[in-house]
Amino acid sequence: MNTSVKDLLSQPERTFNAKELAALAAYFRVVMFDTLHDRGTGHWGGSASSAELTTSLYFNRMNIKAEDPTWEDRDRLILSKGHASMNLYTVLAHRGFFPVEELSTFRKLDSRLQGHPCMNKLPGVDMSTGALGHGLSVGLGMALAAKLSGKSFWTYVITGEGCLNEGQSWEALMSAAKFKPEHFVLMVDYNKVQLDGTEEQIMPLGPLSDKLKSFGWNVAPTAYDGNNTEDMLASFAWMDSDDVWPKAVIYDTIKGKGVSFTEGKNAWHGAVIDDASYAQGIVELTSDLHQKEAAL
Amino acid sequence: MSMAMRDAFGSKLAELGATHPELVVLDADVSSSTKSALFGKAFPDRFYNVGVAEGNMVDIAAGLATCGYHPVVNAFSIFLALKGTDQIRNTVCYNNLPVIIAGAYGGLSDSFDGASHQAITDIAIMRALPNMQVIVPGDAAQAQQALEYALTQKGPVFIRLNRNPMPDLPSASEIGTVCSVEGSDITIAANGITASYANKAASLLAKEGIKAEVLSVPVVKPLDVESLKKSVSKTGALLCVEEHVLMGGFASAVSEAFMKQGISCRFDAIGIEDTFTESGPYEPLLAKYGISAENIAMRAKNLCK
Ligand SMILES: Cc1ncc(C[n+]2csc(CCOP(=O)(O)OP(=O)(O)O)c2C)c(N)n1
User: Do B89 and B138 reside in the same domain of the chain?
Assistant: First the structure.
């Protein structure tokens, strides 16, 4: 008798292994695609890209209490690419921060699920984001607070490469290297596609690892596959491997991951999922989910 | 002459550091100008100099605020209000975080540095932000009271400070409207350091038999409409004075409130007209842009005709 995602989600507080995380992420992609199609608004490309990052953090790594979302000692996540709100909401809901049914209110009037995450409206959101470029600075402030108060919580910041176009991101990179707070990690969701086009067309970032190193960061020696949960767990092991701060990990990811015709296409950054695309895409996502469930 | 506001503010920060463990102070490479260095010297562990990066500084402060600290960010007011607007709006105000935005060198007070350093649009920007309170102290004591008040608040407060030693105003127990001269012919509502010029204008007017009432009004938001209304109901005329452009600042706030409440009176406002300012010694510079006892008296007199 195979385990299903449903079984996994009945015990959301467990520390899941790579195969389980892969199945969860595949399931969350289905939920996201469904919800975005139903609602006719939101950002598929970036949400699909970071699915394994967020799933692995919330279902394997972060020290959090869904029943006490503002617990002082909790680990924090700042989704600096706030347009991937559907990804964050899906993970938070299934992790127990709010009812899964509420996902259907996404971007409706009076909903707690704002277009971009709002910390004062929705439990589990550690920082409101939406305007790109803020996350690293705010995260640095949280990490400094941990240091000052003698707490050991972790602060993770997920940015896209577009988010790193903002000058403020580099101000934050500079200042984090000055203050060197512990347990402060930048996770770059490096799908190399922005809103208007590819990174090469819009703003080439490379060599990103060298740039981060030259800014004084402890950068993971390998780039991990951010859509592969084995790699995600390997990157977590690297985070724990030494005590040199701040740390950065670059994840190679695919924007629009999981639906063949949306992969790597900037047109699917924020496009409405029309019925025909939905019909085709959901078949691919469901078959991927079944494969991952079968592997459990 | 009183202490310069920046010295008063910096020393108050250092003093409050001892009793407020939640107080953390940030500066953007101007701490010897803003005087936040006084805090930095006393509490090096709770002081962050983030370099010339005002937006970054505001967001770092916001992060600290989410973890129980009460940050005070210091930089020149013009740069906080312009380079930090996105961060002040989208992170601090949207999340209603207890971050104190201390804008140094407010108005024309960085007089010799010229237009690039003079903050003449900061009040308009800050008062447009939901959740933000806006205080423009008129002297050193008010600057210290504003800080004490801001530290009791659960949301953001903008405090606009002045660079130079300015005359003391009549003292009050807490930050708020103070009536420094009573009169019945015209109300002069003066924001920030313009209050001392308004007081002198009242003496000039008295010599001509005009009894001006002078209100020093440091709090632009939330505006103390009641005190203004009470005075104007007696005088029937109102002259607002501010060290800021006339669009969107103190006089705008007053006229919006008066229009909305249907309070009508003869009205005029002194501030910087729709123009950039320039370098020069502070007092003559203020005078050139309309802020002098003589000009206030003249405009008040015209309003009483
Ligand atoms: C300050 C700011 N400017 C512009 C935008 C509009 N915008 C939303 S997403 C995006 C591109 C983001 O690219 P990236 O960070 O790489 O995210 P991902 O590819 O993962 O979706 C842009 C320009 C914004 N949200 N904030």
Answer: yes
